[in-house]
Amino acid sequence: MDLVPALDEPLKKVLGPATAKVMAEHLGLHTVGDLLHHYPRRYEERGQLTQLADLPMDEHVTVVAQVADARLHSFASARAPRGKGQRLEVTITDGSGRIQLVFFGNGVHKPHKELLPGTRAMFSGKVSVFNRRLQLAHPAYELLKGDSEETVDTWAGALIPIYPATAKLESWKIGKAIQTVLPSAQEAVDPLPDSLRAGRGLVPLPEALLKIHRPHTKADIADARDRLKWDEAFVLQVALARRRHADTQLRAVPRRPLPDGLLAAFDDRLPFTLTEGQRKVSGEIFDDLATAHPMHRLLQGEVGSGKTMVALRAMLAVVDAGGQAAMLAPTEVLAQQHHRSIVEMMGDLAEGGMLGGTEHATKVVLLTGSMGAAARRRALLDLATGEAGVVIGTHALIEDKVQFHDLGLVVVDEQHRFGVEQRDALRGKGKQPPHLLVMTATPIPRTVAMTVFGDLETSVLDQLPAGRSPIASHVVPAADKPHFLARAWERVREEVGNGHQAYVVCPRIGDEDEDPKKRKSPEDEAEKRPPLAVLDIADQLAAGPLRDLRVEVLHGRMPPDDKDAVMRRFAAGETDVLVATTVIEVGVNVPNATVMVIMDSDRFGVSQLHQLRGRVGRGSAPGLCLLVTEMPEAGPSRQRLNAVAATLDGFELSRIDLEQRREGDVLGQAQSGVRSSLRVLAVIDDEEIIAEAREEAAAVVAADPELTRLPGLRTALEALLDEEREQYLEKG
Predict the structure, then answer these.
(1) What is the rounded CA–CA span in Å between residue 617 and residue 613?
(2) Which of these, 165, 142, 124, 126, lies nearest to 22 by C-alpha position?
(3) Is this structure's pTM higher than 0.85?
(4) Confidence tier at 524 by pLDDT (50, 70, 90)
(5) Counting Cβ atoms within 10 Å, is residue 75 exposed (0-12), middle (13-18) or buried (19+)?
(6) Can you tell me the distance from the alpha carbon of 567 to that of 176, in angstroms, rounded to the nearest whole number?
(7) What are the residues facing 553 on neighbouring strands?
(8) 634/621 Cα distance (integer angstroms)
């Protein structure tokens, strides 16, 4: 069904080509409907002043404030050598704080006349720091005269909407554009079934759009947001419910392990007992594998909770049942590591077809992009003939040349590193759709799992296997207390002296060419130096605090064979300290490594720090993670680092992470880079709405999978899930 014509109208017809172009390029808005769904981020009250005290750095902001004073200065410069240069400095205040506005050159005349002390206006620009003070350079502004007809009309009511804006298009210009298209809101077709809307006391969609853009009271905003949150949650859950429904229509080959086959032989040799969690999750997976439609399961596990063991047992069960299993890893380092550890765990059970292989043995092959031609040909042949029951590889597994004899299970490690198309291509290699197990070590709050992976059943591993050691984490404030950093390097020496090894992680490699155009002023340099780099830090450590120790580097731009050689030497204990980028973030397992120093730790996200920290304390000796930062104590970066140091609970950290980042970042990343469709729904705060919407959606789809009786809902699905996203949801 087509979209409603009024809402489908291109913006260039309504607003003119110039404005429409900026909206399309910078805000992704193309039609009247897109613009109506561009909701205010917050509202300013006429009598109330914004919080200038907590403006974020480097972000584009809109504030309502009053001019405290304005001064015009003259100065000499290369362009105006005789002291004819002009600079206008305007200080604005809102009661919570002050910020300076700066205008230069010919740009000073208009603001000098208009921004007189006592004037109130909306100011919009990018927050920067100059001489350690916050400032907005050349901000756009709109005077709030209060008595002028236009201003009163434009900002109808007491509440001024502040829209997500860009440097090219200020909030008030977006507001004016929305006033132009607002009458079209009457034509919006309601996606919610009448019974659902009435049963929950939600206002109709046209009324909600009117109230979110032109509220007269705070109650209007609350009504509108309640209604629009339901739209987002419900339409997304309907899309996921339709996918789950479609999956139940697919046929798959049931795979049951033999009572005395490969899996049983493997279990008999395990030198330890599985944790209660591992046994429970394995049971859920084996039940799914035994059914005649494809398993779609997400396995979430804390760092080091033994996910690989659970996945390996599922793979062996499928091999037992005559199928093949493929594990897809995000990097070559990780694929090689998985291959090594699986072959070690299986022993002669991995030597199928070879002398010394036992009765139930199979072949375990590795397939990566950088393999030599002969090894690659051999691996491809083993896959095509079915000789290899288990294959571990990178996206090289997806290439057209790769043919499987009978692919029964696909295990995707670290979900968020893989695009949807890649997973889809691998699933397409089975004669019938293979079973799918997705593993992630980034714990995801339940609501995010329901929103992003809503088509997957979820299993959680939250117990650590016996023998894993606790990890102590500390923040090292290098700028405030340089002696703490000196002590950190002493701790590294002590651990190496006790026969252990260490990681030092940096955000950057260090061989990037510096772009001369990007050179900054001395003030900028002080405020924002580039992140520390592996190559520089490795040299400094080897010549300084860690001299006499065996220091090596590892980063993503090294040739694959070199990377593998470095990892092998580190795993064998021939290297004391590995200075690396985040290539070691997932899956790298060296039980003898006990200490990790993360340089510029404020440049990493919470989940990433938790992942990195999970690389130490994997043996019987306790682990130590030192988070080095130069950020000031009171800032948000330090609060984030303190949170990471305070808990080892990944689910708790993922909540903190989500609360601190914008929702779209989290969902966008998990949704293969597709822009998040969530505008008012907050996945942490709106847990109840998401859970209820999921139930309502399941009931609607069960009764009417094609949504033939709900044309408005079908329209909303098409509009909300733009093509790219629709593909994402179809492919999963």
Answers:
(1) 9
(2) 165
(3) no
(4) very low
(5) exposed
(6) 59
(7) 579
(8) 34
To 10 degrees, the CA torsion angle through 36, 37, 38, 44?
80
- Taking the C-alpha atoms of residue 161 and residue 532, their distance in angstroms, rounded to an integer, is 41
Cite the DSSP H helix spans in 102-182. 109-114, 149-154, 171-181
Residue 596's H or E segment, with its range, is strand 593-598
Nearest to 625 by CA among 486, 470, 464: 470
Residue 323 corresponds to which tokens in the numbers above?
């199928």
Q: Which of 178-187, 244-253, 713-722 shows the lowest per-residue confidence on average (mean pLDDT)?
A: 713-722
In this structure, the number of other CB atoms found within 10 A of the CB of residue 468 comes to 20
Host H or E run for residue 210: helix 205-213
Question: CA 52, 57, 58 angle in degrees (round to 5)?
Answer: 125
Angle at 170 between CA 169 and CA 175, to 5 degrees: 100
C-beta separation of 145 from 543 below 8 A: no
Task: Return all residues near 410 (Cβ < 8 A) that are at least 6 apart.
Answer: 325, 326, 328, 423, 426, 427, 434, 435, 436, 437
pLDDT classification of 585: cutoffs 50, 70, 90? low
DSSP state of 531: P
pLDDT band at 152 (very low <50, low <70, confident <90, very high): very low
pLDDT value of residue 719: 65
- From the list 262, 254, 311, the residue with the least C-alpha distance to 287 is 254
User: Over the range 1-16, which residues count as b (16 or more CB within 10 Å of their CB) and which as e?
Assistant: eebbebbbbebeebbe
